[in-house]
Amino acid sequence: MLPELTALLRLAPEHAGLDELRRLAVEDDALHKASAANRLKTFDLLRRLYALDLRVPIFREAMRLQRLFPDEIRPVMGLVALAREPLMRACLGMVMKTPIGHPLGRSDFEAWTRDFAPGRHSQSMYLSFSHNLYASFFQLGYLGAAVGKCRLRQHRDAKAATVAFAAFLDWLNGINGLALLSGRYSSTLELGRAEHLSLLAAAGQLGLMRMAHAGGVLHLDFSSWLKPGESRSSL
Hints:
Layout: H1 2-11, H2 18-27, H3 36-50, H4 57-68, H5 73-84, H6 86-97, E1 103-105, H7 106-116, H8 123-139, E2 143-147, E3 150-153, H9 160-172, H10 193-205, E4 210-214, E5 217-221
Antiparallel strand pairs: 1-3, 2-3, 4-5
Helix pairs in contact: 2-3, 4-5, 4-9, 5-9, 7-8, 9-10
């Protein structure tokens, strides 16, 4: 739902909280939905995926970054969705195991969903899950050009703010040093070691976080991204 989120945030005041975002989506119909019920359903889905609450550190910091670097809203907010949605995280493993340039179609996502949760859902639910996952990974940039009923697996371009935010998510999970490069969220960027370190250095030079790398030792400090009373377990 990255297009819907982008549309909502485009209209939101800089420090809009949950209530203001709900008002925009539901009362002001910022997303141009056909009915009040559809507006409320869409907002509830967005809240599930993205929190939409500045009291949630990962959403608050994603909001800060996307305002500083608006061209990175989709990869940054996509990481928020991955952090909050277990089914997407689980499916990402299948997607990333597919070689770059190979096709992936909706049927592949349905087969994966059936293997992941055998016998738990109706046929219509498996179809719904597969359509949503297929669309989500296209929006996240893992799937590109269409070939027949499939899309080709592609490598995503990563920029400094996205790389910093992925490292932040891994740092919140207690990972430090060079292990951050292979953390759950940093690894989703599929970067080589040298490029990854270069982008982290660029993020440090931009003042996004404290970064030091020398003698095979990497130190990242995101403590300034947290408010008093928040901790590294504040996902």
